[in-house]
Amino acid sequence: MGVAAVIMAGGRGERFWPSSREDLPKQFLAFDGERTLLQRTVDRLTGIAASGDVWIVTREDFAGLVSEQVPAVPARQVLLEPQGRDTAPCLALAALHISKVDPDAVMLVLPADHLILQAERFREALAAAISVAASGDHLVTFGVRPTRPETGYGYIKIGALNGMNGLHEVYKIAAFTEKPPREQAMAYIQEGGHFWNSGIFIWKVSSILRALQGHLPALMEALKPLAAAIGTACEQEVLRRVYPLLPKTSIDYGVMERAENTVVIPVDFGWDDLGTWAALERVALPDLDGNIIRGRVLAVDTKNSVIQSAKNRLLVTFGLSNIVVVDSEDAVLVADKSRVSDLKAVVGRLEAEGLEQHLRRPRIGRPVEER
Fold first, then answer.
1. Hey, what long-range contacts does 184-187 have (CB within 8 A, 24 or more apart)?
2. In 3D, which of 61, 64, 88 has the Cα closest to residue 6?
3. Which of 11-20, 62-71, 209-218 has the lowest mean pLDDT?
4. Global pTM exceeds 0.90
5. Looking at the predicted structure, is the pLDDT value of residue 370 above 50?
6. Taking 80 as the threshold, does the pLDDT of residue 368 lie above it?
7. Which of 323, 352, 346 has the alpha carbon at shortest distance from 18?
8. What digits encode the pLDDT tens for the residues 78-132?
């Protein structure tokens, strides 16, 4: 029984504007100045899945970026969505492809834009999850031990202990909760038995196809023409015709919240979904004033802030606290740090004001004001 790793890399990363753009979302950025989030996701699979066992689902517009950043992944295993239809269609597409190659494979599902600080502990947990998935018909996920009453994550409530795999406990899932208010999130932490939903899944490809058929039959019926076309000369043409018609739903809502064979493995390997600029404070070392600084910055009497300058341009802050300042070639963001989770509203305002050019990377060779 082989292992096939599916990396979902089609997100837009709007809450990391202006560094993240429509044509360069956050999964293709290097927040540590070296490897991009996509590259680090592939790197973490060392010893679990070779590059020839990796599948990447992304948008047609990002095909060049994927090829450039992870050239070892075979081109035939880079699946190009004509448009985003959420995670259930994305993973159904991947599962259909993998089943043609290895119908007995264990399928790993990893978002491309998450950060995991302890790669070895992650691989140990992944090996345990693969064993659990391979031994039965379980749909496995990781539950991350919460460290704060986070309102931007989904939560998993554990049920009865289903067994042990090595040092890892495996629990039946009692309930899912999507992004609770702060009071409820605080109660979950105090009560115990609740974990953040990591968005990482492990299952046999046969198990997820059976679950998709059982819980999302309309989706699988709509995908039949594509399933028949996989490996033929007309595959991409059929994909472009069929995919925009698929029902838009998440794998969490469409399958995991409805299935009875779901289990969760509690983990603690330094996971963060890097949802906003403020998240950098949790994964980077601050200076003595609590600032996360990247680039050429002079922070005078500035505290507890995230500041990033563009290239070699000097950025100076003075007398500020709890802010986010991000300088790019054609735009500067200055925001209250507590509001950066709402940054999608700024992206929407740019569109409404006719400033869409600032949602894509500036074209080289023309002054900004002429674009």
1. 185/146, 185/149, 185/150, 185/151, 185/155, 186/149
2. 88
3. 11-20
4. yes
5. no
6. no
7. 346
8. 999 999 999 999 999 999 999 999 999 999 999 999 999 999 999 999 999 999 9
- Whether residue 305 contacts residue 337, with contact meaning beta carbons closer than 8 Å, is answered with yes
The Cα–Cα gap between 266 and 259 comes to: 19
- Let me know how long the chain is: 371
Asked whether the bond before 18 is cis by omega within 30 degrees of 0, the reply is yes
Q: Which residues contact 204 (CB under 8 A, 6 or more apart)?
A: 1, 104, 105, 106, 107, 133, 134, 137
Quote the percentage of the chain above a pLDDT of 90.
94
- pLDDT tens digit sequence for 223-270: 999 999 999 999 999 999 999 999 999 999 999 999 999 999 999 999
Q: 131 phi and psi, to 5 degrees?
A: -65, -40
